[in-house]
Amino acid sequence: MTVKKRSVASSAAASRRQIPAFVSKFVISLLIIFCFVAFCGLFSQFKLQSSSLPTGFYFDDFRLHDYYNPVKKIAFLFLVRDNLPLDFLWHNFFKNADPENFTIYIHSKPGFVFDESVTRSVFFYNRQLENSVEVGWGKPTMIEAEKLLFKAALDDPSNQIFVLLSDSCVPLYDFSHIYTYLMSSPRSFVDGFIDFKENRYNPEMSPDIPEDKWRKGSQWITLARKHAEMVAYDHVVFPIFEKHCKRRPLLDLSRGNESLKEQQQHNCIPDEHYVPTLLSMRGVEDELERRTLTYSLWNQSTETMNTQAWHPVTFGYASASQKHIQDIKDIDHIYFESENRTEWCGTKSSSGSCYLFARKFSRGAAMRLLTNGVVGPYDPNTMFQDLT
Length: 388
Hints:
Blueprint: H1 2-51, E1 73-79, H2 87-95, E2 102-107, H3 140-154, E3 159-166, E4 170-171, H4 175-183, E5 188-189, E6 222-224, H5 225-232, H6 237-244, H7 257-262, H8 274-281, E7 288-289, E8 294-295, H9 322-329, E9 333-336, E10 341-344, E11 357-358, H10 363-371
Parallel strand pairs: 1-2, 1-3, 5-7, 8-11
Antiparallel strand pairs: 3-6, 4-11, 9-10
Helix pairs in contact: 3-5
């Protein structure tokens, strides 16, 4: 009898020892299910917030990025015809920088490869996009190329600032100054203003692009990551530009009256309107410094048929003197006549200077900047030494 009681007692004790293990597994399972449901809820909320964006804006490639990455880089986006004629100046600029603080992307003509046969700078080796398109001046393909550059650079979550540059652009300061200037401001630098003179808005764009959202500005922009995503992943405004924003053919007197008639056509330069108009439609103009960081000196001809007025002046060796460069650096405000608006320049850490870059510079002018130490210390004997 005693043995039986002991056996029953032992079984009860064993059962009590087994219960906590079962309960533990059950509780762990519940926690896993709870976490999964919570994650699904957060994801659904994110999708709901995304769906509340203005009608017609789709970000089908939008991804969550690690905005808390301690490494913050500037992505330099070069939009070029083929090679980079001022690669020697940019090489010295990047050589005096921490390679952890920048990335480089190049859009060139399809099939063009940046290797030792076209550039002596290792910074540009194989930095070309593989999906580049043929670009025509004043055509929507210019915007398409820009979007490809932004999209490629957005793949790196460390890229927080995106600077669009041409093959004739030069830096006016060393890397440290430019990095500090850009990282000290959360805002994008987009030249955008209301233009009442040129009548480039095409009524065919309405109602998709309202006329009161139409803006004009410099193509050479500097974007924070949030705004770069808006440009890269826009699939609504861009098709409208492709259809209704086209450059009027240049005057060709050899074609007589036919060319004169063409001058009556509606004229629209897509790359001068797309980004400022898109960001205006997105309602983020209050997040922008409405000015460009790239200085250009435009031909001031007032002759309507003078095609030279369509392009900025090219700086030669003589016009790249230290005094002339300093005069550009000393510009501390920009006046927009059409809006009677003055933009005063500078950031929290750097007041006064409006411009970090300039264009269009010849090779001779760029060489003068290099030898004058504008972008950093210069030693011709070690300039292209292997940096690996």
